[in-house]
TrEMBL record:
It comes from Vulcanisaeta souniana JCM 11219. It comes from the Archaea. This is Iron-sulfur cluster protein. One of its GO terms (molecular function) is catalytic activity, acting on DNA. GO terms for biological process: DNA repair.
Length: 307
């Protein structure tokens, strides 16, 4: 019999849901010109940009190699820098993100775009492959992104996206991230129950620390030994985390998009990997790790472009 790696803790879910429901949560500005196209850009060009940028939006910092740069007096790092560079490219040539261009994209172009003198992003070749695959898939099957997104519903859209390498993750991190952006831009109608959180390192780490997901002892032992988790085990754990956040959202009657934005910011700035700043955390009184003084990080997984 297969061993279950994690279970939901209902009492913790309820406490976290109640705490989150007392906070004033809001979604991010998806029209911020530093990262995203302006409102007056046509629909197809907007689709092209988000489909491509989400496809390459996975881990940028590896070990001591920091993906960071100062642009116009402001420092950007990680995903923020990736999207900032995306808009620099968009402002130079928005057609760069069209499927017809992406399908024949030279990896050297991606290297010059994402590495230059301030990187390095650790896998520009992989990101070039993902972008080429996006372009080839869209052109070969739909012709345009407008036809790709002309799906019968969210599940149909996810099925279509999952046939591209960038979106094949069974936990659908990038697919739900893309859906979130399109919903906030008013380009996709999504019912709250259709929206799942795009589970990444931050949301996983926060779920473990809050205690809404209870890890089995054998998993904790693997984490203690800094073992690399298989893709199968990683998937099982992230699905458990996604289910736990889904329960939090349902019980607290919360906006899933606002919750995702809040948790992502929390994980990047406060509930960080090595030295969480609990004195600044609005969830500390509902946090199992804070109460016990024992903080675990996300599980150690093999490098992947899934998230």
């Amino acid at each position: 019999m297969a061993r279950i790696p994690a279970t939901l803790s209902l009492d913790r879910v309820i406490e976290v849901a109640n705490t989150l429901s007392s906070l004033d949560l809001h979604s991010s500005d998806v029209f911020d010109p530093r990262f995203y196209p302006p409102k007056n850009v046509d629909v197809e060009t907007t689709y092209n940009y988000f489909l491509a940028m989400v496809a390459i939006d996975h881990r940028t910092n590896i070990d001591d190699k920091q993906f960071t740069r100062r642009i116009d007096g402001e420092e950007f790092t990680g995903s923020d820098l990736l999207w900032r560079l995306g808009m620099e490219m968009f402002n130079r040539d928005s057609a760069f993100f069209s499927p017809t261009n992406l399908r024949r994209l030279d990896p050297a172009v991606v290297r010059d775009w994402l590495v230059s003198d301030y990187g390095p992003v650790w896998d520009y070749g992989v990101r070039a492959y993902l972008l080429r695959d996006v372009g080839s898939y869209v052109v070969g099957n739909y012709g345009t992104t407008i036809r790709l997104f002309n799906a019968s519903g969210v599940e149909d859209l996810i099925d279509r996206l999952s046939l591209m390498a960038a979106y094949e993750d069974p936990v659908r991190k990038k697919a739900y991230l893309l859906i979130k952006f399109l919903a906030l831009r008013g380009l996709l109608k999504v019912r709250p129950q259709e929206m799942k959180l795009p589970i990444d390192n931050h949301l996983t780490r926060i779920a473990y620390r809050l205690g809404i997901v209870r890890l089995e002892d054998w998993v904790l032992e693997l984490m203690r030994r800094s073992m690399h988790f298989s893709r199968e085990l990683d998937t099982e754990l992230r699905l458990a985390v996604r289910d736990a956040w889904d329960a939090v959202i349902r019980i607290g009657k919360l906006d899933p998009i606002a919750i995702d934005d809040f948790l992502w910011r929390l994980g990047r700035t406060i509930c960080i990997r090595d030295k969480p700043q609990c004195d600044k955390c609005p969830l500390r009184n509902a946090c199992n790790a804070y109460a016990r003084g024992l903080f675990i990080n996300e599980h150690n997984h093999y490098l992947t472009y899934y998230y």
